Amino acid sequence: MSEGFVRHGGSQDVVATFSGFEADLLRSLASQLVELLRNEAAAPRASDPLEAMLDFSGPTTEPEDPVLARLFPTAYQHDEEAAGEFRRFTEGTLRDGKARNAVLMIDMLEEAGLPPELEEDGLWIDVELDPGQANAWLRSFTDIRLALATRLGIEEGDEDYWESLPEEDPRVHVHDIYEWVGYLQETLVRALWV
Q: So which domain of life are we looking at (predicted)?
């Protein structure tokens, strides 16, 4: 198992070594996040860049998918009109940013040597992140964990429940992935700021 992220020498960069399986799992999680973000379009895409910058025709209602609703919560719980206006002006940009962060993770894993199809056992790859890239990875880790927590129904303080599930319950393995991504996130924060 990966030791997580550590500071790279005396620089501000951080590095992690992943097994091929771990890197492929991260790529899969990031790919699923991108697909989810882009599957339910937040706004029509304008072909003219200036028009796209000035286009505020985004959605005004909460997404139907519970994960998207968690990633893009309603800003004003008691004012539906204000919440709709806020969503219209912000959600498209937020979706694009989240997708860009996840795509960066995928690209960096592949640039570090992760093949398009993982076939060989014993592959290890090193990923080195500058501070900007590390922040993008942190945001993606947060989004991935929110998505997993929402799908699993994880709530604060329910650790005993998850520990009591039998090993053969398929949710246990997904919960282990949720915990592992949290571990990576924690080591990345520590490497950056401690």
A: Bacteria
Residue 65 lies in a domain: yes
Q: Which amino acid is at 41?
A: A
Q: Looking at the domain assignment, is residue 1 inside a domain?
A: no
- List pLDDT tens digits, range 123-182: 999 999 999 999 999 999 999 999 999 999 999 999 999 999 999 999 999 999 999 999
CB atoms within 10 A of CB 147: 23
140 inside domain: yes
- How much of the chain is helix, strand and coil, in % rounded to 5? 60, 5, 35
Report in angstroms the alpha-carbon separations of 122 from 1, 16, 125, 158.
12, 16, 10, 36
> pTM for this structure?
0.86
Q: In this structure, what are the phi and psi dihedrals at residue 187, rounded to the nearest 5 degrees? A: -70, -35
Residue 45 DSSP class: P
- Rounded distance, CA 90 to CA 55, Å? 11
Domain of residue 149: give its range.
Answer: 6-193
Q: How far is CA 40 from the centre of its chain?
A: 17
C-alpha 40/C-alpha 129 separation (Å) is 30
Number of domains in the chain: 1
CA 28 – CA 58 distance, rounded (Å) = 28
φ/ψ of 106, rounded to 5, equals -60, -50
Kindly state whether residue 106 falls inside one of the protein's structural domains.
Answer: yes
